[in-house]
Amino acid sequence: MLAIINILLCLALSLAGFVAGKGHGENWDHYVWQNNGKALSETWVGRKAVNVGDVTGDGLYKVAKDYLWRSCNGRWGWCDEAGSWQVVNTHQISKWPNVIDSYFQMNVAAKWSSDAIREAMFEQMARTMQQLTNTAENCYTVPGHNVQCNIGDFIYINYPVINGHENFVRMKFYGPWVHDTFKCCRTLNKVDEATDSLKDNISKAFGRNYSRDNKCLIWLDKTCGECGGKCDECGNTCPNVCPKGNCLMAY
Hints:
Blueprint: H1 2-21, E1 41-46, E2 49-53, H2 57-71, E3 78-80, E4 86-95, E5 98-111, H3 115-132, E6 139-140, E7 148-152, E8 154-162, E9 165-174, H4 188-196, H5 199-206, E10 212-217, H6 224-227, H7 238-241
Parallel strand pairs: 1-10
Antiparallel strand pairs: 1-8, 2-7, 3-5, 4-5, 5-9, 6-7, 8-9
């Protein structure tokens, strides 16, 4: 009976902490579905690895740009392909060092209040994917084959609302095989580089001074700056590595 009471007490405390975290505490600025007012461009990158195989760098950039414009080419100011996954053929390791014909999938949802904003944010998304696979930390060499890489399971880029119209582009990724890891915290500088390369375009599109806030989502309200690069390798044990008081539950 005492054990049951202790379990119920822990659950109650966890729930209370979760509710408190969703209030107005200074740490709760991690609404991934909106611009939080911290910067003109706010990017969230998921930490779970998705293997894009040998579709990397410039090749991944082209795949992303083609898909974004093909899926979101209307004049209605929005697109939503979240329920329809685009299959991209690639080559992946099923079991080292066996490379097989395989695939990864992606989908997109976006809203934009002008063509200039749409152009800037699609370019930013494609460059972010490109840069994350242009670094050795997220890639590995397979003897006799091309370099293969991992990216995060999602990239969300949120901008301010203009005249009641949201501005964002959000992509999710999935693949059947994963080899090695995706080191989001360690390569967040690549996301910064992709964003900064478009600072003039983004500033002009919104008519505002450029600023950015890019983060890896580790757990509910824990980011790289607090947990550190060690969360790139701790897998599901992140709550044991980060202080549990700030790692309430998986997002």
